[in-house]
Specification:
The protein is of the alpha/beta class and 144 residues long. The chain has a single domain, classed as Rossmann fold. Helix 1 packs across helix 2, helix 3 runs antiparallel to helix 4 and helix 5 packs across helix 6. The two termini are 13 Å apart.
């Protein structure tokens, strides 16, 4: 099953003391085993690195540790999808038209990437925001 992974799931899988670590690492194992076809966006890759290196984890995740995790555990087995410049513009415009501010734009970018990749499922721990910005995909947005 083609499954798009949001940043919240990738970060939780990386940080052993994260409240959702067990669920997230199980989902990653399903990608590694071939049970799921994992998909992330180039935006999600950058966002995962940013969150891992700036979140108040104790001890903090250092930049080289974040890269080691992503390059060893995500990039080899996940399909990396991109958005076009026009799609970025359209997503930001849609956020503006709907009055969505702040980080919701990032959730909307994830939804667009998942649609582009023809994902059959979207994994996130941020269900409320994903369902708000992507009501057309409500039937495939779930927590792992």
């Amino acid at each position: 099953m083609r499954t798009y992974f949001d940043t919240s799931v990738l970060v939780a899988a990386c940080v052993g003391r994260h409240v959702h670590h067990f669920q997230a690492i199980q989902a990653l194992r399903e990608v590694r085993s071939g049970k799921l076809q994992g998909i992330i966006s180039s935006h999600g890759l950058a966002e995962s690195f940013a969150v891992l290196t700036r979140a108040p984890f104790v001890p903090p995740v250092l930049p080289h540790e974040a890269w080691l995790y992503l390059s060893a555990n995500v990039l080899p087995t996940f399909e990396l999808v991109t958005l076009t410049a026009i799609e970025y513009r359209e997503v930001v415009e849609r956020c503006s038209q709907n009055g969505w501010s702040g980080g919701r734009v990032y959730d909307a970018l994830h939804i667009q990437a998942a649609k582009n990749a023809k994902a059959e499922r979207v994994y996130t721990f941020n269900l409320r925001h994903f369902l708000q910005v992507g009501p057309e995909v409500h039937n495939i947005v779930v927590s792992p």
